[in-house]
């Protein structure tokens, strides 16, 4: 019994270490499982938080898919490549820094939120202007912030993806940001409690992540360019571009360099005299000149075949029937660019930089009229004169005095219908008459330049139905402008200012309402944005019948010079006089944003070149006036037209290369 007991005791003692070993092993396994679970939870939460940075590009792809881009599997993979690279990079940084110091979590979460907001703003900029956010655009927006606030509604409240507004998208993604980073914060807290725990394969995970980053970076460097730079991530793209240039692995389009000289260089105005006039009898003798620059008034809404012009716009109809009417192409669909083209006869600078307003003195037809015809120039504007240094530009071309509504009318008498861009036009013309009468009393002819707000966004011109569309509100503004112009002509007639006065009415640019996926202006080369009315009219005087009804803004200055017989001048222009015979013409134009798109029109065709994708599209404006059927241009035709457009772009930049003080 004792022996058995002893044996049993001895046997139990022998089994105890094994039992304890198994117990310790089980405890270790449990701890490893817990550690793995905690670390897995942390990595999953960080992937979700970082992955939220893909949302802006996904929304952008959806927005573009109905308008401009292909959405096959490989296309979407190309568009997302750089964004995935950013997500993986953020995940690797977070996974390798958060558990070392819990304060790293706060830094990374704040940085991620700022990055998400930055990508969302870039997304919206791309939707509106077809180009990534860049320093030039940021600088322009900051410089003109006070004048651009009325445009905030377009930025925030129009559809921005999946049928929702940008404001709603930001709100939803803010909630998603809070949720994902709260989850990551909880996972970080759990992992930090066991701060000495490390996954066995942590080093392997790091190397695997770096390998993925390398592969994504390699793919980004070698990837082809996508339309409107949709493949680019604003954060990653500078690195990719630098590496691509450094390693000479560029697989994108050929450099945008012209191979031909530009076919429409500036030439001396005196050369106009070598061209046959339309009529043998002399043109009417004028003493005064009135320019009315119609803000945002497009051809399609006033004189298109389906518009009842006489019924809707009786003043425009009268002036067009009695005078000379042209469909005029713009140089750049932006106000200050239009002013330059109209008043100097030269194409504008094809970029967001307002170089046109940087010079203290620049040649113009107004200088010629003042010096040779004893005339005095004065400007009146409903638009704010400080915007893009409009007042400085006017002074440089010979308009010494420019008056805004605030200088013409006491505050208590002004209309309250104003925006950040300007004030109501209701009293613009009537309040200017005294200034013109004073010039006339001094024995001089007057050059009066009017800049009404006309149809500029936000189209606050009438008390229309609350559900009225933006296009309807816009056309109501044109109708209001038509009415105000009618009242102006009546007032001029009563004061004896109408006779011997040449009136020039011209749009500065058109306006888009989603016809080709865009709204407002600046970024489109389609007819709704680049064609405007141009009317020459004089009370009771017969003007020549034009040989062609199509023109360009740069034709206005040489035509006015021809009307006033001041063509014997060294003034350089790129347009032609519309009082002369015309051969086959080509009309060039460019977007407000550098190397977004340029176009040329050679009737009946329009060619639009997109720099980002290096593609050329053709439309037959005679058969397809709404530009609904694009034709892809390739081969020799592509090379020839592309070279002409690149030459135009390069020439205009060279023309503005001189410093402002020169």
Structure write-up:
The chain folds into two domains: 33-195, no CATH class; 284-656, Alkaline Phosphatase, subunit A. It has an eight-stranded mixed sheet, with helices on both faces. Strands 13-14-15-16-17 form a five-stranded antiparallel sheet, with helices on one face. The longest helix is centred in the N-terminal third of the chain and has 50 residues, at 2-51. The protein is of the alpha/beta class. The chain is elongated and about 90 Å long. 42% of the residues are buried. The chain contains 21 helices and 17 strands. The model is unreliable at 1-12, 28-32, 196-200 and 249-253 (pLDDT under 50).
Q: Which characteristics define this entry?
A:
662 residues, five-stranded antiparallel sheet, membrane, Alkaline_phosphatase_core_sf, Sulfatase_N, transmembrane helix, 2 domains, Alkaline Phosphatase, subunit A, eight-stranded mixed sheet, alpha/beta, elongated
Can you give me a brief rundown of this structure?
Helix content is 46%, strand content 12%. The chain has 662 residues and is an alpha/beta fold. Strand 13 (587-590) and strand 14 (597-602) form a beta hairpin.
Distance between the termini: 121 Å
> What is the name of the CATH topology of the largest domain?
Alkaline Phosphatase, subunit A
Count of DSSP H/I helices: 21
CATH architecture title of the largest domain: 3-Layer(aba) Sandwich
In CATH, the homologous superfamily of the largest domain goes by the name Alkaline Phosphatase, subunit A
The percent range for strand residues is 5-15%
Number of strands: 17
Mean pLDDT: 86
Oligomer: single chain
Q: Regions with pLDDT < 50 over 5+ consecutive residues?
A: 1-12, 28-32, 196-200, 249-253
Tally of structural domains: 2
Gyration radius over CA: 33 Å
Strand order of the largest sheet: 5-4-6-2-7-10-3-11
What would you call the shape? elongated
Helix content: 40-55%
Major pleated sheet: 8 strands, mixed
Secondary-structure class: alpha/beta
